[in-house]
Amino acid sequence: MRKRIGVVVVVLAMTGASAACGGADGDPPAAPPSSLGPSSLAHQHAAPPPSPRPLRAGERFVTLTMPRPYRPVAPGGGTDEYRCFLVDPGITAQAYLTGSQFLPQNTDIVHHAIFFRIAPEGVAKARALDDGAPGEGWQCFGDSGVPGDAWVAHWAPGADEVLLGEHLGYAMPPGSRLVMQVHYNLLATGGKPGPTDRSSIRLRLAGDTPPVTPLDTFRLAAPIELPCTARESGPLCDRAAAVQDVGRRFGEDVGGTEDHLVQACSAGRPVAGDTQHCDYPMPGPATVYAAAGHMHLLGRSIKIELNPGTAGAAILLDIPRYNFDDQALRPLAAPVKLERGDVVRVTCTHDAGLRTLLPQLRQLPPRYVVWGDGTADEMCLGLLIGTTAA
């Protein structure tokens, strides 16, 4: 889950902050596999979503559905496909996205979904991508493939309706569209075409009266340098081979993500270990309202900190027992203001030992895990929902 992180060298969206990250050599070892909860081990599928909460003053619902059922096909001998679908919310006057509820039609194969806003001037490019690809939508590892897109909504297991705070929303100018990017996981079929999916999303849209504070999504990523365990061996336990394999399955941009992260964060020196972090200096003021974290099946914990190790340190997100099936957005108890020069750190711990406990990964060869788009690869992604208005 990210916006072409390998290409943009992992910046905070909208702000252009540079990053510094690396392995946490002194961190304690991960908890033993037996400490995991049952849903983490079983990777439970989401239950049918409950009814949405009542509309607030000035809001209306708009439901968008994929035009037709889609049968995913994993390329490059892999087990994952990212597919983008262009959908039209019918915006004819300035509006704001104040909440959303993704409705996955087939939770057996839908891993996560991201929604990108496409400005009116980008719609022709999106249509060209759609028209130029066979079948419904287009393949889109990384971001949507449309320059200037903006992350405005996402879903992962455990998430329900996202209801943003009063008078907060993502700007939706007249004529804008959405790209629905769906990550399909075909581990159960060994990468072969599986069942179809026709997911949808229910949007909350509001006008600009009363005034709405426009939001953006800040993205913070850290590298993944998770070696095979002492009991594992095989060709992909070699780091270079593992990086090359990611590129084979997802293309050059995604294949280079890990090396971009290491170069930007650790002066090009990968540090193997369970725990990695990345620091982002703020180039200007911002206000944060909510946070979330995303990893895959080997994730143990994720944390987002403000000015760690200082007298003014604060925790923006702390998930000490990560559960893939509980990735809901966490509203902050109160908005947190960030100032120029503040440092935001994302830290993730992964556990290669979980491979032997998870049915989805047991049949796959062991590997040195780096950043990749596949369910069997990993991510360390922190999300902050906020605004650059101080």
Automatic annotation (TrEMBL):
PROSITE patterns hit by this protein: PROKAR_LIPOPROTEIN
GO molecular function, one term: monooxygenase activity
Chain intervals with Low complexity compositional bias: 24-46
Copper type II ascorbate-dependent monooxygenase C-terminal domain segment(s): 278-381
InterPro entries, per the entry: Cu2_ascorb_mOase-like_C, Cu2_ascorb_mOase_N_sf, Cu2_monoox_C, DBH-like, PHM/PNGase_F_dom_sf
Signal sequence, start to end: 1-19
Segments of this protein annotated with the region Disordered: 24-57
The entry's keywords: Disulfide bond, Monooxygenase, Oxidoreductase, Signal
Oxidoreductase keyword on record: yes
PANTHER family to which the protein is assigned, alphabetical: DOPAMINE BETA HYDROXYLASE RELATED, MOXD1 HOMOLOG 1
Protein name (record): Monooxygenase
Organism: Paractinoplanes rhizophilus
